[in-house]
Design goal:
710 residues, alpha+beta, Beta-Lactamase, 6-stranded antiparallel sheet, elongated
Length: 710
């Protein structure tokens, strides 16, 4: 893109990607480099499409639900056979790429995980990949990995450029004599219809005399320009969308347009890997056909709009992404990782309006001392561009430092930037913050770009307001959970204990799982673990009542079975509408015995002196809060020195589509293999089996107790 030859290691990667596209028959290929520090995939090189089509996807957060990230996170080949499958599996990507394509994404693994390879085929490709094709894709991934490994071993690892490189298109071999080229030009001139050629960037590279006449402009006024730049009557997103569809899907597309005042023309676009051939003919269908311009996917009419098609798709893509932002930091990261690159910004300041001041919630591209100086500015000031934009609700754009200095003399000196876009974030007339995009060089802001940025500001405002509300609820829930769980467990002679609670990460991060350790006397202790139904403030509140009741009855000297029976009666009196499972373990450390009582809870695991862990057969009574006058049988088991007792809630072993008994058996096998491992390390490995943090749907409580002897 810059016209500068890439370094040797980058050139080798580019050649490997080009070879991959040739071997697999892919029309589009791209390599994304994994940035583990920032949890991003950065686009390094792309082939088969122009640069502006891929800029919105030059930086993709690893948590985004798109094929290239799924391939890296799941360490698997992701295949999307058609647009219908894309819409089902990746709706955000389907909105941004509404074209007939087949797609594959695969991780690139060598001496380390380097990133992801993306390949795309025209919509004519069969929806299923053959075994041979999958083998070619996987071998191509290994070939890229070897190139990256070699570059790293030589001390010149491949890095992501500021802007992704674009592979040059295939060149047409022409003999030294010019006769074939002249013959082709003569052939085009003799055709009764007009014709022209576009490169993959959309620029006109050839136009016949008949074509120029039909378009109403001379060839000199057309060559080297985009059609929608040279011909104002083609400046419509519907027509640009046809060009994008031809480039990406590699399939012929057609549309009808009116050349003012009333000349209707049919355009047919025939794409390949080097560009697009366009046939232009007069249309006899008139306005009805032109107004019946139809989607290449659905066949339904698509109205025109006063913005570039690429920007419309880009805006829909970003809007879909903003709906998935949960917390304030998610909004900041999304704006920084996707909106900044999409509009070429070098800096970002995102501020929230709090108590009459602008508090910076996130930034990029600024040193710490500048952010410290900008943080806390008054909202209603007329002396800063941010305050002025937020007070009036009108976005402001400054294309040059002198333009800024005329109104705000100190602003360029503070930020050191050269161009600014101040986008007020307003909801129903209420200011919630401001988004400032900045640039290291002077930059014009065309009217259509200002319109898109202004629309995006409204979406960001909605997302930021939702995120602030979510964060406030999350902090409340987290504080309540911490207050109800024990801050620390007592030290008990003859017993080592490790306990941990993990909230469900899909939801409010609050639930009813709990644990506790009670010191009864010098040689006796009690461990309790439970799970209140649901994930809500009510569940957490009931959890606190159950834990308090068990604690009170246990320290008062009640027998294990009677402790759960009394707690059951309490819950029936409270009638909270929720039930609770619970397991109580009375530990006699002097005698080396444990008495266990269960109220519908998963069985505990015991690793005895023989080193084997097994699930204990503890006959359960009914869950608490359901059956009046329920009884709870007691089971006594040996607990010699060295024995390990594991108490847990069902979130550790129960997942959709799995067998809970098999999961418990696998957990017992893991405890057997762990031997006498340190309890904290064992806790880490056991909880690691619960899957990625961002996929947990149930909270987990886990207690590990090891008898050490009095």
């Amino acid at each position: 893109m810059t016209g500068v030859d890439p370094p040797p290691q980058a050139a080798a990667l580019d050649a490997a990607l080009g070879e991959t596209m040739r071997r697999t028959g892919a029309s589009i290929g791209a390599f994304y480099l994994l940035d583990g520090e920032h949890q991003l995939l950065r686009l390094v090189v792309v082939g088969g499409v122009p640069a502006d089509l891929v800029m919105p996807w030059s930086r993709i957060p690893l948590a985004s639900p798109v094929p290239v990230t799924d391939a890296v996170r799941g360490n698997r080949l992701v295949w999307v056979g058609d647009q219908a499958e894309m819409a089902r599996a990746y709706p955000r990507s389907a909105v941004a790429l509404p074209y007939r394509i087949a797609l594959a994404a695969i991780p690139v693994d060598g001496e380390r995980r380097w990133g992801s390879l993306l390949l795309m085929w025209p919509g004519s490709h069969p929806p299923r990949a053959t075994r041979r094709e999958r083998g070619n894709i996987m071998s191509s991934s290994r070939r890229l990995a070897r190139v990256l490994d070699d570059a790293a071993r030589e001390g010149h690892p491949v890095t992501a450029p500021a802007e992704p490189r674009v592979l040059p298109g295939p060149t047409v071999r022409v003999p030294s004599t010019p006769q074939p080229a002249l013959a082709a030009a003569d052939f085009a001139e003799r055709l009764p219809e007009g014709c022209c050629a576009l490169d993959l960037e959309g620029r006109i590279t050839f136009v016949s005399s008949r074509g120029a006449g039909l378009l109403g402009r001379g060839a000199d006024a057309l060559l080297g320009l985009l059609p929608w730049q040279a011909l104002p009557w083609l400046d419509d997103p519907v027509y640009e969308d046809r060009y994008r569809a031809a480039v990406i899907s590699r399939q012929p597309v057609a549309f009808t347009a009116c050349r003012p005042p009333d000349r209707w023309l049919d355009f047919r676009l025939y794409p390949d890997a080097s560009g697009i051939s366009v046939r232009i003919t007069p249309s006899n269908a008139g306005p009805a056909r032109a107004q019946d311009d139809r989607s290449p996917i659905t066949g339904e009419p698509r109205p025109a709009a006063p913005t570039r098609a690429g920007q419309l798709y880009q805006m829909m893509h970003l809007a879909a992404a903003l709906t998935e932002a949960v917390g304030v930091q998610d909004v900041v990261d999304l704006v920084a990782d996707q909106i900044m690159p999409a509009f070429g910004a070098h800096g970002l300041v995102l501020s929230s309006a709090e108590s009459g001041r602008l508090r910076i919630t996130g930034s990029r591209g600024y040193p710490a001392h500048v952010i410290e100086r900008l943080d806390g500015l008054p909202v209603n000031t007329r002396f800063t561009p941010a305050g002025q934009a937020l007070t009036t609700g009108v976005p402001s754009f400054f294309s040059h430092p002198q333009e800024m200095a005329r109104i705000y003399p100190e602003a360029p000196l503070v930020s050191g930037k050269q161009a600014w876009a101040f986008l007020p974030l307003v909801i129903s007339g209420r200011p919630v913050g401001i988004c400032v995009l900045t640039y290291d060089r002077p930059r014009a802001f065309p009217a259509e770009e200002r319109a898109v940025l202004t629309s995006l500001a409204g979406l960001i405002a909605q997302a930021l307001d939702r995120a602030r509300l979510y964060d406030a609820k999350h902090q409340l829930a987290h504080g309540l959970q911490e207050a109800l769980l024990p801050h620390r467990l007592p030290t008990v002679d003859g017993l080592r204990v490790a306990a941990r609670y993990l909230p469900a990460t899909l939801g409010m991060d609050i639930g009813g799982d709990f644990y506790d350790l009670l010191r009864i006397d010098a040689t006796t202790a009690a461990a309790v673990i439970g799970d209140v139904q649901g994930h809500s403030v009510a569940a957490a509140a009931l959890m606190g009542q159950v834990r308090t009741a068990v604690h009170t009855h246990a320290t008062a000297g009640a027998a294990p079975g009677e402790i759960l029976a009394r707690t059951n009666r309490l819950l029936l009196d409270l009638d909270p509408g929720l039930f609770t499972t619970c397991l109580y373990a009375h530990l006699d450390l002097r005698r080396g015995r444990a008495r266990l009582v269960s109220a519908g809870h998963p069985p505990p695991l015991l690793r005895g002196s023989d080193g084997r862990a097994r699930a204990l057969d503890v006959p359960p009574g009914p869950a608490l809060g359901i059956v009046p006058d329920a009884s709870y049988p007691v089971t006594e088991v040996p607990l010699p020195p060295g024995a390990l007792l594991a108490l847990y809630t069902d979130g550790l072993v129960e997942t959709a589509g799995s067998d809970i008994e098999e999961a418990i058996a696998e957990l017992a096998a893991h405890l057997t293999d762990a031997g006498d491992e340190d309890l904290d390390r064992l806790m880490d490995t056991v909880l690691g089996r619960a899957g990625p943090a961002d996929q947990r749907t149930d909270d987990i409580a886990l207690m590990l107790l090891r008898a050490t002897g009095m």
